[in-house]
């Protein structure tokens, strides 16, 4: 059986290709570093990169369509590896209430909080959820997102979770973006299961996940390991059920307290552990040993006015890859700008601009299990990249707000202006 070449390895340079893109500095992001190639060139065939390097060394490719930029930089397409974009309604009224002094407990007692989103999601049709999700997803795409993960988790019933997952799959068909679907049924305890969390976990493991797997509605399974959600033992049951169905796992862990959920995720070789404000050095060591990515979510940290930062120093010390994501959701991170997360990752969590950019390219791709196909500018990778008329990569982190001009290439073709 032939062995597929690594993205970094190629045989002789190709003699033909569909298109060549040159005239800018390539920010390749190989190994999480800029690894700049000044006056670089990218050759594309069939939606994949078949050659990269200095334009001076580029094969003739006389039959290819030529694209010439006037300076600037080219980065890999952005990967938003943690979102909750599909849900009913919004919680802007609650946001205003909190700022006017109403407590979260009072809001929840009046039917607000996550249960209000659950009710709105259950009441919405698939088409209504789709229309609302399109409204939220398009701004992310306009900024250069070419791959996005979207979680379920606001249905909290078999019927409604499946409805959300079907909508997520439809988004990947309608829009030119790679969509990865994650089943997050173990997000919160539905009201009808009050006091019966184990019964709800049984429903997820025995009924929901087998249907999800048989209908290919999810690429991974996630859970929320926290005092106000599910215990490590309950999460482990979900993980074991997912593994039996061949589904990789991820975990919301250590956001509000330390339950060592990230170490649990590592034991199950999870793709990622996310949030991690209360993760310890031992958690970081476990994640490093298993290759589990740390996904940092500064939007939720900012909106909740948290003060405990993720242990970035431990992640650096133990070489844990750090991804960044929008965590776009109705309650704690109504964020529709991944580029803003770059700045927040640097200003709030003290990442460097290079680390932040790696977080939404190569490490974001790794958090979705896509490191062999996405996240860097290398031969063999999918031809998703962005041209920016900027002087250096740090400008992507530096500018606050607004939509920077850019040319987005998705699978080797310029993506149209569908996001207005």
From TrEMBL:
Q: Which CDD domains match?
A: Imidazolone-5PH
Q: Name one GO molecular function term.
A: zinc ion binding
Output the superkingdom of the source species.
Bacteria
User: Domain Amidohydrolase-related: where?
Assistant: 73-388
Where does this protein reside within or beyond the cell? Cytoplasm
Residues bound to N-formimidoyl-L-glutamate are: 154, 329, 331
Keywords (A to Z) from UniProt: Cytoplasm, Histidine metabolism, Hydrolase, Iron, Metal-binding, Zinc
Q: Where does this protein hold 4-imidazolone-5-propanoate? A: 91, 154, 187, 255, 332
Q: Which GO terms describe its biological process?
A: L-histidine catabolic process to glutamate and formamide; L-histidine catabolic process to glutamate and formate
Its recorded reaction(s) are: 4-imidazolone-5-propanoate + H2O = N-formimidoyl-L-glutamate
Q: What GO cellular component entries does it have?
A: cytoplasm
Cofactor binding remark:
Binds 1 zinc or iron ion per subunit.
Q: Any idea which positions bind Fe(3+)?
A: 82, 84, 252, 327
Entry EC number(s): 3.5.2.7
The UniProt entry, under PANTHER family, shows: IMIDAZOLONEPROPIONASE, IMIDAZOLONEPROPIONASE-RELATED
Please state which protein family the record places this protein in: Belongs to the metallo-dependent hydrolases superfamily. HutI family.
Question: Its biological function?
Answer: Catalyzes the hydrolytic cleavage of the carbon-nitrogen bond in imidazolone-5-propanoate to yield N-formimidoyl-L-glutamate. It is the third step in the universal histidine degradation pathway.
Name recorded for this polypeptide: Imidazolonepropionase
Lineage of the source organism? Bacteria, Pseudomonadati, Pseudomonadota, Gammaproteobacteria, Enterobacterales
User: What gene does the UniProt entry assign to this protein?
Assistant: hutI
């Amino acid at each position: 059986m032939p062995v597929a070449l690594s993205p970094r390895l190629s045989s002789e340079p190709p003699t033909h290709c569909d298109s060549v893109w040159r005239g800018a500095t390539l920010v390749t992001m190989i190994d999480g570093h800029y690894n700049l190639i000044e006056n670089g060139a990218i050759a594309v065939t069939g939606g994949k990169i078949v050659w990269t390097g200095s334009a001076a060394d580029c094969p003739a490719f006389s039959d290819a369509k030529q694209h010439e930029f006037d300076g600037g930089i080219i980065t890999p397409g952005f990967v938003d590896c943690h979102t909750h974009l599909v849900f009913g309604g919004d919680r802007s009224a609650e946001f205003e209430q909190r700022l006017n002094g109403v407590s979260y407990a009072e809001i929840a007692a009046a039917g607000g909080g996550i249960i209000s989103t659950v009710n709105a999601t259950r009441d919405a049709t698939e088409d209504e959820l789709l229309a609302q999700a399109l409204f939220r997803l398009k701004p992310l795409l306009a900024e250069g997102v070419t791959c996005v993960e979207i979680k379920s988790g606001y249905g909290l019933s078999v019927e409604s979770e499946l409805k959300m997952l079907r909508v997520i799959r439809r988004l990947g068909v309608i829009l030119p973006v790679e969509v990865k679907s994650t089943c997050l049924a173990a997000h919160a305890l539905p009201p009808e299961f009050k006091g019966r969390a184990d019964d709800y976990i049984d429903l997820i493991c025995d009924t929901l996940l087998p249907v999800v797997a048989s209908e290919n509605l999810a690429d991974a399974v996630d859970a929320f390991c926290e005092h106000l959600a599910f215990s490590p033992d309950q999460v482990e049951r979900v993980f074991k059920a997912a593994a039996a169905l061949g589904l990789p796992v991820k975990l919301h862990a250590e956001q509000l307290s330390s339950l060592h959920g990230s170490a649990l995720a590592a034991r199950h070789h999870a793709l990622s552990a996310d949030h991690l404000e209360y993760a310890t050095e031992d958690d970081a060591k476990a994640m490093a040993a298993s290759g589990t990515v740390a996904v940092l979510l500064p939007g939720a940290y900012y909106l909740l006015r948290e003060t405990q930062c993720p242990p970035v120093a431990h992640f650096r010390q133990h070489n844990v890859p750090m991804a960044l994501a929008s965590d776009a959701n109705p309650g704690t991170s109504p964020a529709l700008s991944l580029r803003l997360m770059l700045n927040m990752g640097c200003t709030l969590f003290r990442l460097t601009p290079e680390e932040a950019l790696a977080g939404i390219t190569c490490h974001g791709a790794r958090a979705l299990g896509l490191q062999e196909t996405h996240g860097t500018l290398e031969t063999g990778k999918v031809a998703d990249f962005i041209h920016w008329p900027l002087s250096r990569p740090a400008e992507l982190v530096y500018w606050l707000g607004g939509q920077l001009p850019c040319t987005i290439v998705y699978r080797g073709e310029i993506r149209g202006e569908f996001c207005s």
